[in-house]
Design goal:
Strand content of chain A: 5-15%
Radius of gyration of chain A: 27 Å
Number of domains of chain B: 2
Strand order of the largest sheet of chain A: 12-11-15-13-14
CATH class of the largest domain in chain A: Alpha Beta
Oligomer: heterodimer
CATH superfamily of the largest domain in chain A: NADH-ubiquinone oxidoreductase 51kDa subunit
Number of strands of chain B: 4
Largest sheet of chain B: 4 strands, mixed
Strand content of chain B: 5-15%
Structural class of chain A: alpha/beta
Shape of chain B: elongated
CATH architecture of the largest domain in chain B: 3-Layer(aba) Sandwich
Structural class of chain B: alpha+beta
Strand order of the largest sheet of chain B: 2-1-3-4
CATH class of the largest domain in chain B: Alpha Beta
Chain lengths: 624, 155
């Protein structure tokens, strides 16, 4: 036995890979209960680490290793209700699990029972749901990419293999030519998921045909869009699917070296990608002579330094060369001259993860999903003022309404939906009149926004659209690398104007000036950061001009967000004198006068933090 | 306690772990910063020499990326996420409250070197916003009134 363990795990042929897969599947008992706990960043933040420790302790204590297994998986998406626990094979979903629940879950699971109190209750119907797939949040999704996250321990390559992992690579290397693969990807209609929506197959073809001594492939995991985290989740939860896509892509374009450029703010994604590379190398799925095909390919990880602009391809490549992450003008595309001046094919994490699906099942099947110009599924991060926050994967062409109300469960506290912001900082805000808009690359463009990497931030009546525009312009001003003038100076001016408006210093002509500055940025910026930067301003001006006017003319913030334009007071008739607001006030601006006497708010002392407004459930704190 | 004076041997071994590849400048600086909490001048000089890269380039990279600090940081690093999802859920008010309590602005360190306050564009845990990360530990669904107990839990 000992000797056998020392022998190499290397797979020298596709047949050996298939034999290994069979052996892995055969060694696993499909009926043995398996407790899967989400170990993604979201659930960890909610205390999943303690839950995992609790399960480990209980299994050990009861000597139950033979009866039940435990698996730490990636993120299945329903972050709102974390920590999430799913019991396989039935897929029973337990939500908001605490360490103290571990003992009961284990003892009941072993007996084949269900722990009723931890099941999900639909807040709209009050109905309890036992199985994961019946939860409305999941029911309307199509989870081609995210679906395996809850069955895979990302640090165990055998889990990925058991689900058919690397079969697409086997197919590509044994029966397909590089041109044949490119053709298949072209036919699938796959478009880049990083934001631009450029056809992936066409990009690969140009890269393959470009002249150079070497070719590189890069995986862009520098997910800089604030409010989007699907790349993190894929890299954390199923890193092998990304790697497999990269290896197939490298073979197709003729590259032998690849990089994964990942944000350093995602420590778990970095760690899991490192482990995945190591394991793939051990099995001979990366490195020299992959699966005995004669094809060599290796991947290195490079961690980003927290610059949004480094999601831009030329800036990312500069950073990979150890330079400042500044973009360059793209007269020559990076597929022709990219990293170290060589042809370079860069795709985003989600794009890479789609590749194995296309190669494994064929372009025809893939192209059946989605809308006419946008094929396949798209992962969105549904966040902000929405009941079910989390990651969702839906077919392209689904309407905003289905996403927000069908999957997202609507707006919390019965508030009114105001807008959805898509496309990251350089995307736009779409108002309620577009709720029936089918979501795909082209339709979002038409509405003045864009797909971006898939952030979907929902805003309700308490979100101020001028404040949102100011927020994005401030963000982009800070992230502008400073190389070209329109972006560097234009954003600075726009930020000053918007800040002025939100602080009550808006004046006639401000809107006009914003529009003129926007036009200059669109036309004259060096890279897409600058040329798309005005989108948040332009879309909010297009759909919410009245809010700008209220700020400028009436010095009023209709949503009650802009501090300088808001005052707080106590409604003496509604206030029961409970004292909650006085306790919450950090600066002692509110005096509790005792029961049945309204509290008194000293406007001189008030710092307008809104703490009193948040704690009062009776509407006795007035914000105007 | 982390070492305060850069140790030449330590930096040498970081450089060696990347085979002194100049393309790995950013990750190398990250490892140096993980060791010292910031990027000491002497370390930048040594990294430049070790990689054969001019100090000016090392400095431009170190000052360009937001994740790097050229000043010593406090014992606890507080990162307030100002991503969009956190922003619409009131992250600005959480930051205001932390600034008010610590008496420093974002990017500054308290006089007693206990806390450094920074902001981050997104930590990718948007569903739980607003998020505050202290020394790598995430606290989700923050509000102004949760700031005081959170800060007090770090001695």
């Amino acid at each position: 036995m000992a000797k056998k363990q020392q022998t190499s795990k290397r797979l020298n042929s596709v047949a050996a890979l298939e034999a290994l897969r069979k052996a892995i599947v055969a060694s696993r008992d499909p009926d043995k209960p398996c407790i899967t706990v989400c170990g993604g960043t979201g659930c960890l933040a909610l205390g999943a680490r303690d839950v995992i420790a609790g399960f480990k302790r209980e299994i050990e204590k009861g000597g139950l290793e033979g009866k039940v297994s435990l698996k730490i998986t990636g993120c299945p998406g329903f972050c709102e209700k974390g920590p999430l626990v799913v019991i396989k094979p039935e897929d029973i979903l337990y939500q908001q699990v605490k360490a103290g629940d571990a003992a009961e879950i284990i003892s009941e699971t072993v007996k084949g029972n269900i722990v009723d109190r931890l099941l999900y209750v639909d807040p709209n119907t009050g109905k309890k749901t036992t199985y994961e797939s019946d939860v409305p949040f999941y029911k309307k999704q199509k989870r081609l990419l995210l679906g395996s996250n809850s069955s895979i321990d990302p640090t165990v390559i055998e889990d990925y293999l058991a689900l058919g992992g690397y079969a697409a690579l086997g197919r590509a290397l044994s029966g397909m030519t590089p041109e044949g693969i490119i053709d298949e990807v072209k036919k699938s209609g796959l478009r880049g998921r990083g934001g631009g929506g450029f056809p992936t197959g066409a990009k690969w073809e140009t890269c393959r045909k470009a002249e150079g001594e070497k070719r590189y492939v890069i995986c862009n995991c520098d997910e800089g869009d604030p409010g989007a985290f699907m790349d993190r989740s894929l890299m954390e939860g199923n890193p092998h699917s990304v790697l497999e896509g990269m290896i197939i892509g490298a073979y197709a374009v003729g590259s032998h070296e690849g990089y994964i450029y990942v944000r350093n703010e995602y420590p778990l994604a970095v760690k899991n990608a490192e482990i995945a590379i190591e394991q793939a190398e051990e099995y001979g799925l990366l490195g020299r002579n992959i699966l005995g095909s004669g094809f060599d390919f290796s991947v290195k990880i490079s961690r980003g330094g927290g610059a949004f602009v480094c999601g831009e391809s030329t800036a990312l490549m500069a950073s990979l060369e150890g330079k400042v992450g500044e973009p360059r003008a793209k007269y020559v595309h990076t597929v022709e001259k990219g990293l170290w001046e060589q042809p370079t094919n860069l795709n985003n994490v989600e794009t890479w993860a789609n590749v194995p699906l296309i190669i494994k099942d064929g372009a025809g099947r893939y192209a059946k999903i989605g809308s006419e110009g946008s094929k396949g599924t798209k992962i969105f991060s549904l966040v902000g003022k929405i009941n079910n926050t989390g990651l969702i994967e839906v077919p392209m062409g689904i309407t905003l309404r289905e996403i927000i109300y069908g999957i997202g469960g609507g707006i919390p506290e019965g508030k009114k939906f105001k807008a959805v912001q898509t496309g990251g900082p350089s995307g736009g805000c779409i108002p309620d009149s577009f709720l029936d808009l089918p979501v795909d690359f082209d339709q979002l463009d038409k509405a003045g926004s864009m797909m971006g990497s898939g952030g979907m931030i929902i805003m309700d009546e308490n979100s101020c659209m001028v404040d949102i525009a100011r927020y994005f312009i401030n963000f982009l001003e800070g992230e502008s690398c400073g190389k070209c003038l329109p972006c560097r100076e234009g954003l600075k001016r726009m930020s000053q104007i918007l800040t002025g408006i939100t602080e009550g210093r808006g004046k006639d002509g401000d809107i006009d000036l914003l529009e003129r500055l926007s036009a200059t940025l669109v036309d004259c910026s060096l890279c897409a950061l600058g040329s798309t930067a005005p989108n948040p301003v332009l879309t909010t001006l297009r759909y919410f001009r009245d809010e700008y006017e209220a700020h400028i003319k009436d010095k009023r913030c209709p949503a009650g967000v802009c501090k300088a334009l808001v005052t707080y007071s106590i409604d003496e008739e509604k206030c029961p004198g409970c004292g909650l607001c006085a306790k919450a006030c950090p600066v002692e601006a509110i005096t509790d006068m005792g029961k049945k006497k309204p509290a008194i708010l000293d406007k001189e002392k008030c710092i307008k933090c809104g703490a009193c407004y948040d704690v009062c459930n009776l509407g006795a704190v007035i914000r105007k | 306690m982390k070492a305060t004076k850069p140790d030449k041997q330590k930096i040498k071994s970081i450089l060696a772990s990347y085979q002194s590849d100049p393309g790995m400048l950013v990750p190398i600086l990250q490892d140096v910063q993980a060791e010292y909490n910031y990027l000491p001048r002497e370390a930048l000089v040594q990294v430049g020499e070790g990689l054969g890269v001019p100090l000016s380039q090392v400095y431009s990279v170190a000052s360009f990326f937001k994740a790097f600090s050229l000043k010593p940081r406090g014992r606890h690093l507080i990162n307030v996420c100002l991503g969009t999802a956190c922003h619409v859920r009131g992250a600005g008010r959480v930051l205001d409250e932390i600034e008010r309590r610590l008496g420093v602005k974002s990017g500054e360190t308290t006089k007693n070197m206990k806390y450094t306050l920074e902001t981050v564009n997104c930590v990718g845990a948007c569903a739980l916003g607003p998020i505050v990360v202290i020394d790598g530990n995430y606290s989700g669904q923050m509000t102004g009134s949760k700031v005081k107990p959170l800060l007090e839990s770090y001695k």
